[in-house]
Amino acid sequence: MPPYFISGDGGSYAAGVLTTYEIGYVGTYTVEARPHDRNGRRLTAHTVTFTVVDTSTATGSGATTTATVPASTTPGEITGFKLWNTTDQAHPQFIKLLEQNENIDIQLYGSHFTVEAEVVGDVVKVNFGLDENTLYKEEYQAPFVLNGDAEYQFLATTPELSNIGLHTITATPFSSSSSQLTQASISFSIIDTSAGMLSVSSDEEEDGYVTGFLLWDTSVPTTPKFLKKIQHSDVVDIQQYGDQLSIEAEYTGHLSKIVFGLDGNDNYHVENYEPYLLGGDSDTTYYPTPELAIVGTHTITATPFDLSGVSLPTVSFSFLTVDGSTNAGSMAAPGTRQDLIEMLEDDLSFFLSGVVNAKYFLQSGHCLQWNLVYVKVEITEVSDTMCQAPERRRLRQSVASPAAS
After folding, report:
1. Rounded distance between C-alpha atoms, residue 309 and residue 338, angstroms
2. Which residues contact 284 (CB under 8 A, 6 or more apart)?
3. pLDDT in tens, 304-352
4. Which helix (H) or strand (E) holds 345?
5. What is the spatial order of strands in the sheet that 165-174 belongs to?
6. In whole angstroms, how large is the CA radius of gyration of the chain?
7. In this structure, are residues 126 and 174 in contact, taking their beta carbons and an 8 Å threshold?
């Protein structure tokens, strides 16, 4: 809990802050702070490098002391790779820290990307390689971005990363003495689940992949009812769909199992046979997943395994459960004025919710990062309101005034 100090504290400023003795000596230091959200997901790390000097050797009245700041003495290295959305290159959006062999679905993250190499210590240059091009770009100043940048005010899109398929990035750092340091690399796949196309490698055509997710009503487990194909940022109102829900992972190819994760629990459930249900099943009996009835944002991951037991790329998505926020449970007669108003309210609510979620769900550091919201719109009206028209023209007006809350 805050405040956050490197060596700890007593729970508040008044309770005392512990000294960090390691930085009490002359020298150069680099401190990295990596925050995590309430679900344990890592957010953007920030680093600061500073030098502690001792100016007490200055002599004489009015002496001018010059403190020489040496280059970082910490050995340099690549510590990770950040994926950025560069749809608007002048306002890049941090997406996530890349993990080895993961899937990046353009339906979730967009199709304009670049990658930054995170570094610590003495690194003054990074040579990037991309796929078959072993020297794609040389970067001489942090941040070290695959296709160039103007600090974080502008990150250039890397066009090749818009191509569906497997990509490999190498990053070779160099120190201030021009010494080549340890090379780091990352491989990941750009996929498009809307096309059911998760790989273009002919060697992997026999492997299976998760292609989508289906929402089921399991209030009667022995006769489950298919509700809809569920997608990232969907809103599920339990007044409309019920509170006994489960989700099935659609797939293609040959799988031995799927490991489901739910809301930070990476090993929520293992399904060894099709159909692959989040809450499990027994032949035609589908069991509910109680957590899905809890109002709030839910994130589901599905990691398939091939017939040899090797894990394949994970696919994930998030959706929002609400309870009566929409007009799904309305008793308004079809075709009536009230029915029309409620349809307009729901249309506007879903539209505005989509706009807000698309903008902020992946925005690093924002309070809505990894959290979906539902924007509730309510339309009211004022009828037969008298207005005083100009002297030469008077009229009786009816004014409808929408207001959103």
Report:
1. 56
2. 222, 223, 224
3. 998 888 999 899 889 999 998 888 878 888 888 888 888 899 889 888 9
4. helix 337-360
5. 102-105, 184-191, 165-174, 125-130, 133-139
6. 28
7. yes
Sheet holding 245-252, edge to edge: 225-230, 209-217, 245-252, 276-277
- Given a contact cutoff of 8 angstroms between Cβ atoms, the answer to whether 263 and 226 are in contact is no
Q: Cis before residue 143, ω within 30 degrees of 0?
A: yes
Task: Write the single-letter amino acid at 78.
Answer: I
Per-residue pLDDT tens digits for 259-304: 999 998 999 999 998 899 999 998 789 999 999 999 999 999 999 9
Tokens of 29: 């230091």
Under 8 Å CB-to-CB from 71, ≥6 apart: which residues? 28, 122, 176
**Strands 46-52 and 27-33: what pairing?**
antiparallel
User: Per the omega criterion (within 30 degrees of 0), is the bond before 290 cis?
Assistant: no
Q: Contact 245/218 with Cβ under 8 angstroms?
A: yes
Residue type at 255 in one-letter notation: L
Q: Which domains does the chain have, with CATH numbers?
A: 1-57+69-74 (no CATH), 75-203 (2.60.40.10), 206-322 (2.60.40.10), 337-404 (no CATH)
Its pTM stands at 0.48
In one-letter notation, the amino acid at residue 170 is T
